[in-house]
Amino acid sequence: MTVQQSDVLIVGGGLMGSAAAFFLRQRGQSVTLLERDQIGQYASGVNFGNVRRQGRHLGQLELANRSWALWKRLPELIDDDLEFIASGHMRVCYREDEIAELAAYAAAPEARELDLKIYRGRELHERFPFLGPDVKGGSYAPHDGHANPRLAAPAFARAAARAGARIEERTEVSEVQKVGGGFLVSTTDGRQFSAERLLITAGAWGQKLSEQFGEPVPLDTNGPQMAVTEPVPYALPTVIGVYTKIPEEVIYFRQIPRGNIIIGGGYRSKPDMLTRRAQVEPRSILNQIQQMRRLLPGVGNLNIIRVWSGIEGYLPDSLPIMGPSGQVDGLYYAFGFCGHGFQLGPGVGDVMAELIATGSTSTSIEPFSIRRFAGTTAQRSKAS
Amino acid sequence: MKGRFVRLGERERAPVRLLVDGTPIEALQGDTLMVALLTQGPALRQSEFDSGRRAGFCLMGACQDCWVWTRAGERLRACSSEVREGLDILTTQPEAVWPLHG
Amino acid sequence: MATARLNIPSGTAPRVVIVGAGPAGTRCAETLLAAGLVPTLVDENRRDGGQIYRRQPEGFRRDYATLYGSEAHKARALHDSFDRLRPRIDYRPDTLVWNLTPGQLCCVSQGRHFTLDYDALILCTGATDRLMPLEGWQLAGTYSLGGAQIALKAQSVSIGHRVVFMGSGPLLYLVASQYLKAGAQVAAVLDTSPLGKRIAALPKLLARPGLLWTGMKLLAQLCLARVPVHLGIQPVRVLGDAQGGVSLVQVKTAKGDGLDVECDALALGYHLRPETQLADLAGCRLAFDPASSQWLLELDEAGRTSVSGVYAAGDGAKIRGADGAEHAGRLVALALLEDLQQPVNAAELDEQRQALAVMDQFRLGLAQAFPWPSAQAKALPDTAIVCRCEMISAGELRRTVSEKGACEVNRAKAFSRVGMGRCQGRYCSQAGAEVIAAAAGVAVQEVGRQRGQAPVKPLSMLTGEVAP
After folding, report:
1. Which helix (H) or strand (E) element contains residue A321?
2. Were both Cys, which of B101, C86, C247, C398 would link to C439 (CB 3.0–4.6 Å)?
């Protein structure tokens, strides 16, 4: 049995893995990517599609900015625009005191590039006349927008393949071993792959592998609750999200040029990790209907025609695992993006490629280090 | 074409008056909204993604092709809605007016 | 199948919910009632009867013979049975089951959402027409065969001034001749199944000689009225314009000649496809049925699905027609009673089982005589629309296979949008699967089937909740 060799092995074909494969090829690294099912089938393909920087952990904005610069260049990079529209993002709130919180974020030095503008009262309702009267204020990010998540990881993987990456779908990893100066990965169909460096981008299954290398993390899984309406004339270019401390109120929507309004948030469901499927709970749909009527009163005249969910990985501090292993040389991670990884995708791929190829990256990713979970006992992950 | 559907019988039913795109029409009690509109005109709505008009397809509430609008913005599935006196139906989607002023 | 015994707390009456008040649901409710159970019967329509035995609205005067022809006595018997059991069951008309979780249905009626708990769920959700697209079928004036029949039966209208009937299956001749009898203008009957297939299937079709005879009578009626009837045709395209809709149907005859038929309406259909969305949401397994070339619920003989407590009967389970649905409805009720450890008449069980076995032979004969025209999918020009809701062409769908490697239905849907529209793939997904399979060079079962998602039908964002 010949062992397929490459400079870098990537386990997990979501957006992070596919983007990393692409950018590693740009840096002349040979790459093999192994995906158990189909590229982008899980979190990458089912999320809301927000290409959003505002609202992120301030320590994540540097990464988000780097990613944003790549989003703008996608057609030239991967020959696909992923239906990205920088149509603006508005984070709205229902309570006066929350406006100050939004303003504080907007004033933070890390957020300067976002050009955030605070709206309130009459100015808000004049600029965004479709919002409900309960909306008191909001923070507008003119450069943020949205794209089509179903297309993203597959487009990056195809671009990586065109550039010479080896992309293996329906290829399940059975064993990963550190062997000498590198890694040997065996798959259930009897093949073997080796590389000096290994990148784990296995999303909600990332911790299964990190645990093998002595770095368990408390990763939990959730199913996003997504719904979509029938198409109506395109009139709402701004992506809207609610800023609130009340979980059921946290909903967001975006209208695509075809006219459908995509809705997410409110509740989450628990995925079935055996069947690898997640459901949208009826109470989620009913809650979204109720919340949407408050946020966008005109929506009451529309029908929901479809719902979907998927599997996302979460860490308790709402930050991903990203960076080199704290235990093993040549091992790297980028997984567990807590339902907010979509906008970061191109940036994560670019940063990980830089890190893996050169040994360091110019973008700060220290807050995401896996080492932050080292030493904490009883790290039983809730993901199977 | 004036009407697409052709009445073959059952004409002895009470009249029901409604508006379609601002024009008053007369249907019969027991007509579905679809029959009311299509016995007087060629179509129910505008297709979203091409220039074609649509006139329903399955008549059993499965295809979802026959949804029409009322002037107030209500959605009605024409094949499974009974015609009612005073309905004000539009066969072209009202402009996306997201009501909020005042 | 799933473990048969249902554990109901002793002393409590089991909560049985039947979805669908057609022939299967009606006979099921009747059988349960006779055994002392009081089921809840939910139906999306305002009136009982399902599709074939759809009741005309109040105020219509046509008699049963006019409405149901040779099946008039069956329709009368069914409706009378329902009228008798209606006050004795918990009947919820005008109610859509839009979703469910184990043990609980999510229902909406007149804009109000409410839940219904169940210990046993019997899905009698029926079927829709099965469609194969052809170029131009999105033009106004194209209807399903079943739709054409409903127009006549339930509203006493013809779908057009000059109607072409095209496709395959017993419904084709039935609806055409019903139109003829009612005084509508039938421009032509264009049957895609060749005579040869019909003859080959004869042994199985003879399992229901009565129905076979009726079929031949219908054909004779049409020929007598000088309606052009062509067998073994190949659909080519529908022509018309964006405003006026259909004006011409073009086909190739069995001999290979071009044939144009002027019309303003086309009734199209290739037999039936089962409505399995609720069963899918309940987690029931489906399997590919080679005889009819479509995915059907995995069921035991009596109608038990792979999920304990969930049963199915009628055309939503297996396409065996209205008579089969009545037997299946009775049989599934008996199966449920068995699972509830209630006494069941063994002779009655046997009788229903045997009746269904005969229907099965006929079903196989029908599938043979009127095959699903999968080859038409491969032959669709790139410009032909596959998904009417989203206006996606065969070419766009093929490109997701060739350019994006999408060799599976749900994947291809994610890339192409086929199946993302309001009809949720009811009228495009099967043909879409054939297009994908042909483009990928694999058998159609290899590309899978569209996953059922909630809501089962579009759910209004005005939907509010009521306290139970």
Report:
1. strand A321-324
2. C398
